Amino acid sequence: MVKKVAFIGAGSMAEAIIAGMVNKNVLEREQIYVANKENEARLEELKGKYNIKGNTNKEEVIQEADVIFFATKPYDMEHAILDTKKYIQSHQLVISVVAGVSTGFITDKLEKEVAVIRAMPNTSATIGYSATAITKGKFATDTHISLAKKLFEAIGAVSVVEEEKMHIVTGISGSGPAYVYYLVEAMEKAALEEGLDEKTAKQLITQTIIGAGNMLQYAQEPVSVLRENVTSPNGTTAAGLRTLGEYNFQDAVINCVKSATNRSRELGEER
Questions:
Q1: Which of 13, 99, 158, 161 has the most beta carbons within 10 angstroms of its beta carbon?
Q2: pTM of the predicted protein model
Q3: Distance set, CA 200 to CA 56, 105, 180, 246, 268 (Å)
Q4: pLDDT of residue 39
């Protein structure tokens, strides 16, 4: 049973996970601690917003924690590990949500037999709809995976993958919400240019995205069939898709995902 979790890093991903845990009542607020490098104003913001605990004293935050989340920027990760490893004990579970950083790198820097889980959630964790992939390091067991899975299932859906797949996971689901938001921005702009008011445009587009997502989740047909079912010959949808094809929309999306995936690999090599 988890009695205390500690977050090293207080950025947007840490906040998304904390918000999900609080909103879904995974843990009591007083069981959640957070520390960062030096930004006390940010710590005060999170403490006030979620009524959790924390300060810049990492030893105090980590002490007696069952689970320690590393949620720093990739280029801060090595420093964060070196700064905290003397406080981390072998019975604690370390979970990293840092893009591009392997479990092997973390284990090597910790210089002790600590269970490490690497995870890639996304910011939809805030409302309990994250798509999270997890993978285990050298000293992590199936029991550790089960614990991590339970924690992340409280903020969305969880998949267990091989570590070598984590870069593409980052490119698809880690960065994926931004791709959808970018599409919605374009749809909203088109709606406004055609005279639809902003409130109505947002409502219609948002519900369209929600409906399509639910169709993808619950329908039995492949996604290509779902698309074809909406597309009448020579109809409005066909006209729209034809224009997307002229602009090589699918190629753009494929290359977008590959660019994010390759950047994840680069982040793993830059430290």
A1: 13
A2: 0.89
A3: 45, 49, 19, 29, 43
A4: 81
Neighbours of 80 (CB within 10 A): 22
Q: Who's near 237: CB < 8 A, 6+ residues apart?
A: 230, 231
Give the domain 5-163 fold. Answer: Rossmann fold (3.40.50)
* pLDDT number for residue 271: 61
d(CA 192, CA 197): 6
CA angle 136, 140, 142 (to 5 degrees): 85
Going by pLDDT thresholds of 50, 70 and 90, the confidence category of residue 190 is very high
- 135/166 Cα distance (integer angstroms): 8
Eight-state DSSP code of residue 173: I
Average pLDDT over residues 247-251: 98
As annotated, the residues of the chain forming the CATH 3.40.50.720 domain(s) are: 5-163
Domain with CATH 1.10.3730.10 in the chain: 176-268
Which residues, including other chains, have CB under 8 Å from residue 75's CB and lie 6 or more apart?
267, 270, 271
Can you list the pairs that 152-155 forms with residues at least 24 positions away whose Cβ atoms lie under 8 Å? 152/119, 152/121, 154/20, 154/21, 154/24, 154/26, 154/128, 155/16, 155/17, 155/20, 155/21, 155/24, 155/26, 155/121, 155/125, 155/128, 155/129, 155/130
CATH dotted code for 176-268: 1.10.3730.10
Residue predicted with more confidence, 267 or 30: 30
Measured between its terminal Cα atoms, the distance across the chain in Å is 35
